[in-house]
Predict the structure of Methyltransferase domain-containing protein.
Amino acid sequence: MTLQVASNANQAPALFTKYIAPIEHTPRTYASEGYVLPSDEQERQRLLFSLLALRLVLQHNVLKAAFGNRVLLAPLPAVEDLKVLECGTGSGIWLLDLATELKGNFHGFDIESRLFPRNAPGNLFFTMNSVTRMPEWWAESYGLVHQRLLLAALNAYQWKEAINEMYRVLIPGGSVQLGEAGPWKSGSVTEKHQTLVQNLFESRGLLLDCAVHIPQMLSNAGFIEIKTEVKTIPLGRWAGQTGIDGRDNFMGVFRGMKTPVLKMGGLGFVQSEAEFDRLLDEVEVEWDATPGSEIEFFIFTAQKPLSSAL
Ligand SMILES: C[S@@+](CC[C@H](N)C(=O)[O-])C[C@H]1O[C@@H](n2cnc3c(N)ncnc32)[C@H](O)[C@@H]1O
């Protein structure tokens, strides 16, 4: 994939300007213009009234199952009062789950607060911050920093800022754990759809292939002991309930990109809202009918050296 970073993340590179005539439809609201997934009241309501149906909960369960029911892959530093930080926490589902396994203090933050859990236990708290610029006074405070699925939110420069910030807020010997989706495959409709998503990401300067770059970015920031685990998640009915769960989650992700795609005039792939919906319906049918349809998911772990003099 050619990386094309827009000088302004909200501005389309020249390649796409000929397509930009927004297609009228009823948009959902978005946390920020640079972020291409929905995070709105509709999702908040679904969290309150139907936890099992919530895509972020389903997503957490799908990812946890793919990694052998583990939420934590990173080693923990030998400290008595462990402090855990989660960047882009969303509904806090990962942090809530980890808090059932570990003793410590758990802090999640996000640029959007509407999905924060209302009745979290007393050792969990949530704040509004951006991963690209955390408060100065968080320096060397946390034993573990986690971030999952911000690929639709960060451009190349913001990735660098975010990873440098994670390094700064970790104590020496602390660990980072990052989880990101990779490429997906099925048949020809999926190939077309993947190109559409790639073009959407490129038009916003986002890194769809961030998983390729993360190990180097971690190393550049000063992290050591960089490790990668990758699992494939089956997509579609052919793989039984696991495939249905994977399909429902990732179809939810991709259907949620409708507004950004239509705002960009369909990026040369679709001419109307109905055409977008039809394309996504066809992707879903293809996944159901094509054994081997799957998406890769990566978890990276790394450590801040005990001494920077090493
Ligand atoms: C796909 S959701 C993932 C939520 C959660 N990490 C999970 O795995 O369930 C991405 C989240 O990142 C948040 N986000 C986007 N840009 C951010 C930024 N610069 N700093 C912090 N959070 C951000 C969004 O508001 C959204 O809640």
Notes: The chain has a mean pLDDT of 87.
